[in-house]
Amino acid sequence: MNLSFIGLGIMGKPMAGRLLEAGNDLYVYDKNALSSIKELESKGAIPCKNPKDAAEKAKVVFIMVPDTPDVEEVLFGDDGVEKGIKPGSVVVDMSTISPVATRNFAERLRLKGVEMLDAPVSGGEIGAKNGTLSIMVGGKEEVFQHIRPYLEILGKSIIHIGKNGDGQVCKMANQVVVALTMLGVAEALVLAEKAGADPAKVREALLGGFAQSKILEVHGERMLKGMFIPGFRTVLHRKDIKIALNTAQELCVSIPGTALVHEIFNALIAHGGADLDHSSIIKVIEALAKKENF
Amino acid sequence: MNLSFIGLGIMGKPMAGRLLEAGNDLYVYDKNALSSIKELESKGAIPCKNPKDAAEKAKVVFIMVPDTPDVEEVLFGDDGVEKGIKPGSVVVDMSTISPVATRNFAERLRLKGVEMLDAPVSGGEIGAKNGTLSIMVGGKEEVFQHIRPYLEILGKSIIHIGKNGDGQVCKMANQVVVALTMLGVAEALVLAEKAGADPAKVREALLGGFAQSKILEVHGERMLKGMFIPGFRTVLHRKDIKIALNTAQELCVSIPGTALVHEIFNALIAHGGADLDHSSIIKVIEALAKKENF
């Protein structure tokens, strides 16, 4: 099958690589990542000159770019996918972007006879390389079933949540839960240590009860060891949290805990944490506690 | 062995009952719960007229009362434990109270030749009845080993965290993590629903990734079903959060997420949620979202 892949960054490059290794004819485009294009070309991918070109070549167009405006530009920009794509094709947007914008994009593509799936992922670079991503899908059931074999090359847990945008809603909910759980773990570990207990023992005890979480297990350990190699970068989690806050505002929903985490991520980024793992949020909580006077 | 148990409320009564059924001679006291005293008496427990009296009768004195001032009154009040207890005895305080106060109480008892363990629990009324509590213990290792057989009658997971007060620190950390995880789950589920996705599907998908937690599993389901029979009452979780905030203040630690949850619990209690399960926090988040104009 002819596939296109647009966006060859930290996530997109290994994902495109897996689709290629699975024996698909792969057309690739990225507006910047020349070395990624060369690397994929050396493995048999065919570079395209713009998203329009990539869309003309394939029946399924995958997109993996940073944010909502990037997806909009790829789809509807001057040399966008919309200009080249044929009716009956499918766009699979695996970026993490606004669910409201996603529904708008899906409507606009449908006018051209093109179906779209939103299929944001979690699992990070390692998941992208190993094909163990969690993929949360929004869009029509029959389109999902049609595209599923490709998603299975990329991920381990592939769940169809509902209609267009629902995959993005699920990802957004995921990022909200992860952020607040992480804040809870950070505050608890700092408080425990300042209160004179061994935070490692506390974490161990907490894993056996209602405080148990994947975050306490994985990111709690990173916090204790001060190991903040990403993983998932703070700046990207802040972006995802911003999507949740913007969506909440559009829908007249108030999510005060999420808003607080956003501010704490701002402080973390202000002090050099942008490219650290998001579990480095504990550095902000540590910095808030007494060490010395101003 | 002669044991005393002071505080026969929702948790204390079944815990005392288990110690009795295990064949110990049990002396009991509660300043209010006359029906609980009668019930335990009918099973062989011996009622005492005050904490002093209860302490005179036994080598190990268990305490399970609501809050820090209650423990202080039981220990050091007019007819308190301190007045009756013999050197070489052990006080096991299973209440959830201030770790700072706990260390002070342990010091004061040590002056009388009495050792203390702080041994707060999690697992609720069901855990108390079934002997499946998690027990987080602070105090000297040899005292812990001496008392352990009794704790094993009451709990399943019994962890010695460290010195006096460290059990309370661990419980406090537990309550912070649980509260913020719960807030995250509540905000995510409300946002997902308002954004048009099926929150049950979202919860299911999230359980497979980094958003996984015991809270998402157990309390997330309660939220979806609107089943708020406790479980653990909001008013008690607010009390525990208040202990964390007070401790943080004493130690010059800032825990903004925990402070926010405390305010949200206040709102929940203001609107009749005091005796609902703490997962009813979602009702506050739902109430914050648009339904109709003021």
Structure characterization notes:
Two copies of one chain form a homodimer. Helices cover 55% and strands 14% of the residues of chain A. With 294 residues, chain A is an alpha/beta fold. In chain A, helix 1 (12-21) links the parallel strand 1 and strand 2. The first copy, chain A, folds into two domains: 2-163, 3-Layer(aba) Sandwich (Rossmann fold), CATH 3.40.50; 169-288, N-(1-d-carboxylethyl)-l-norvaline Dehydrogenase, domain 2 (Orthogonal Bundle), CATH 1.10.1040. The mean pLDDT of chain A is 96. Chain A is elongated, with a radius of gyration of 20 Å. The N and C termini of chain A lie far apart (63 Å). At the A-B interface, strand 8, strand 9, helix 9, helix 10 and helix 11 of A face strand 8, strand 9, helix 9, helix 10 and helix 11 of B.
Largest interface: A-B, 72 and 72 residues
User: Count of DSSP E strands of chain A?
Assistant: 9
Counting helices, strands and paired strands, the structural category of chain A is alpha/beta
Strand content of chain A: 5-15%
Strand order of the largest sheet of chain A: 3-2-1-4-5-6
Structural domains of chain A: how many: 2
The string of secondary-structure elements of chain A, in order, is EHEHEHEHHEHEEHEHEHHHHHH
Which word captures the global form of chain A?
elongated
Report the sheet with the most strands of chain A, covering strand number, pairing sense and barrel closure.
6 strands, parallel
Measured as a percent range, the helix fraction of chain A is: 40-55%
In round numbers, the mean pLDDT of chain A is 96
Rg of chain A, rounded, reads 20 Å
Distance between the termini of chain A: 63 Å
- In the CATH scheme, the class of the largest domain in chain A would be Alpha Beta
